[in-house]
Amino acid sequence: MKKYRVLLAFLLVSVQAFCQSPGYGFLENKVSNIAKEKLPSVVSIHDLDPVFCRHLEVPYKDLYVLDQMLNRRKNLMVSLTGQPTIQNPALDANSFLQEDFDRIVVYQSVTLSAIQNGKSVKATGSSPKLTSQQMQLLKSADVGTEIQVSIRFKYKNDAVKDFGDANGVREGDFKVKVVPHTESAFPGGKDGLTTFFTKQVSARITPSVLTKTTDRAIVSFIVSEEGTVTNPAIITSSKTPKIDQIILDAIRKMPSWKPAVDAKGKPVPQTFRITFGYDGC
Are 37 and 139 in the same domain? Predict the structure, then answer.
């Protein structure tokens, strides 16, 4: 028994050390993008993000139920057909999950929010198919804005029969960023940007810099028509002033980018928001 207690204590200490050791640095943005010129052809929220069910932010308990129901439906389809529901290898492996999501829910409302001419605007409909007001909102959305799609839905009765407390209206949302026809590019692409922030941010944030209140930070900046980086600003503080300063210093040291261009090939400015935080448990 003593041997097992020692082993358990060792495992607990090891896990705790592992979870306290992740570095603080650049976190890749997981928001989907859509080019500005494609917005006039969007008629459904599925056009904004074909697999938005995988990006839907919902309370944890709702996420668990949703995950269980989608997995159960996937397993049911496999058992009935004897083979996976996706047979075309060219298809995204997650595309059928969106179809399954639509089959187990009843949409109550869909609200789109975006920045239009510098002002926040909203438009609400009752289904994934957009209303004329929602389509107009998208057409006029500013480049750089993140369109937030807020969904209120209920599960169909046959979908929740094994999940007693899953009735009632649920809420979730996902975001899609409006970008130019061709986005600005950092020298060396994403790998180059990651390497730059590893050297300029992560390497400078030693354990002595971190505090108990250190949190994620979000910085914004603009890549101009000439490719220069301008207007760096912390829009969400890390709650550790020294870290905020390290991040701003890094942005100011950035080399020139390849500027963004619109559908006509004209260079245009592009706004970026980048998140920094702990990469680990």
Answer: yes
Residue where the block lists tokens 């496999």: 78
Do 155 and 207 belong together in one domain?
Answer: no
Nearest to 125 by CA among 37, 45, 55: 45
Cα separations (Å) of 151 from 54, 84, 163, 208?
14, 29, 21, 43
pTM of the model as a whole: 0.69
Nearest CA-CA partner of 63 in 77, 53, 73, 72 = 53
Find, among 229, 177, 209, 195, the residue nearest to 278 by Cα: 209
Query: Which structure tokens are listed for 274?
Result: 């980048």
Please state which of the ranges 98-102, 181-185, 205-209 shows the lowest mean pLDDT: 98-102
* Same domain assignment for residues 70 and 149: yes
Instruction: Give domain status of residue 159, yes or no.
Output: yes
C-alpha dihedral sign at 176, 178, 91, 99: positive
Q: Where are the alpha helices (DSSP H) in the chain?
A: 2-20, 45-48, 60-81, 95-104, 132-139, 189-200, 241-252
Higher pLDDT, 91 or 227: 227
User: How many structural domains does the chain have?
Assistant: 2
**Whether 40 and 84 share a structural domain:** yes
**The token pair that represents 278 in the structure block:** 């702990």
Residues 149, 235 within the same domain: no
Q: Are residues 99 and 137 in the same domain?
A: yes
pLDDT at 161 (0 to 100):
59
Domain that holds residue 75: 33-179
